[in-house]
Amino acid sequence: MRAGRLPNRATLLVLALLVVGSALGPMLWAISTSLKNEVNAVSAVPSLIPSPATLSNYVSVFSHKTFGIELLNSIVYAAGAVVIALGVGIPAGYVASRYTFPGKRSIMLIILATSMVPGVALLVPTFYLLDHLGILNNRLVLLIILASRIAPQTVWFMQNFIDAVPTEIDEAAHMDGASRAQILTRLVLPLIRPGIAAVAVIGAITTWNDYITVAVFAPDTTKRTLQVALVNQVFDAVGISWSFTMAFALVASLPVILMFLLVQKWFIAGLTAGAVKG
Amino acid sequence: MTEHTATIASGPTTAQSARVRRRLRELRPMLWFMPVLVLLLTVTLYPTLFVLWMSFQNTKFYELTGFVGLANYVDTLSSGAFWETTYTSLVYMAGSLVLSLGLGVLAALVLNELRRGGALLRVLTLVPWTLSMAVVGTMWLWLFNPSYGPIPYTIRALGLSPGLMLGDPELALWLTVLVTSWWSFPYAMVIVTAAIQSIPRELYEAISIDGGSWRAKLRYVTFPHLVPTLGSTALTLGILYLTLITLLIVLTGGGPLGATTTLSFEVFRGTVQAVNIGPTAVYSIAILLANVALGLLYMRVTGRVTA
Lengths: 278, 307
What we know:
The complex is a heterodimer. Chain A has helices at 9-34, 38-41, 56-63, 67-98, 104-115, 119-133, 139-163, 167-175, 180-191, 193-209, 212-217, 226-235, 242-262, 264-272. By secondary structure, chain A is mostly helical. Chain B is mostly helical. Chain B is built from 14 helices and two strands; from the N terminus they run αααββααααααααααα. In chain B, strand 1 (57-60) and strand 2 form a beta hairpin. The longest helix of chain B is centred in the first third of the chain and has 34 residues, at 80-113.
């Protein structure tokens, strides 16, 4: 619903372009720099149009000796954390939606309480515990920690999606002798496939973008992700090549932007779910 | 079969054993919660209790050397550094909230007025929100680069002196606020847009009939309807800003001269430097309590209880 015509149509268009421009402008500058050669990137008079334009920075990124392992780690962590979160979140969400039993309220409260513990507050105790158990720099441990960060939201999303599936479907299948597991995997899950995809993408973006968990608990060169490698380039203030770093940052963002554009409708629905109060 | 044997051995009546079996059957769905509970209890809840325990310990590097009661709390809370850091956190949070909510409302109103293309432009505007803080920080570090960045260049072209930008203790926190808002105003925009679109059309029509202007519509219909949504959005973003670290690591490293050292950054610094982790545990508890308080307030404001 529109609030009514603004005084001037041209003003409105200029304002709209300003909004989009301010959001995308800094990214355009990054793209421009990534297409410049190292000399032009640091010219005294900055120019948005790279001349000559070159893809050499992207070639350098892809052929960098640790890029392959960092990319692989980013993919493995994002995919693995989502798989674990869905693995524990789907059964919990199903039972939360379909059953009442003694203790259910307490269980939901525990899940809610853990969602209120910020990752920052867990940095020092988790580091201490992992260090003393000798399991820093362990991919599986890292996966489990990353999964735990997205697990509570996964449970709630699943509960909401399954709430929308009529219980008559479960009851009819139960009459036919189907087990609870069969009802969930063969009937309910196929019906909420788009929802699962959205949760998976949102969880994958969150995990892909993480820096702090990986940097603190698995800083090893062979265990780190693209995000950690990017920040390490910035730390190397003397040796930094800005055109290379911008290309690296864009390559590290591309999967996220693509995933976002792919599911933007659900992504936005996920953001606004419950946030609007009328 | 074993169940049956056990029943005979312990010798309760059949009615009793039937009751026990029914009760067990009732509890069986709870098993489906076990995986997520085990995950959250070991990876989240146990370390939470452990950091509380740590905060009562004397520490040397990464060793706990004995119970000291509230000594860490007394030391930390009586130090000027803790309160300076808390103040920096509050200024950073308040500044970022004002700017990102302001820009978010403005962007939502403008794009919502467009007859065509509004939805597409909103999706494009939302892209920064999907970027990682590492990427956002790196991009802005380059934009602010005092020697080659386009922002200092523009400031110089206007005949002013850009100074050290993020290296300037007076300026660093405000530039960090600016970057934080650039990254998060699109989130506010999306939520506010949804709120605007949920306002009943009749309310606007009533003002049109009375001959009211678009200003009157904003003043008497749109803004009053946005207040609750802005409250819950401020809480969500407030929690985010309170616990944010990566952007600070990349942009300023907590400096210059501690000008951008927030509570959360201090926890990061204390964790990786590991000189004395007792006080770091106290900072962690402070953030935890603030986060829980904001979280409970959020639940109250939105009326959402999951259980």
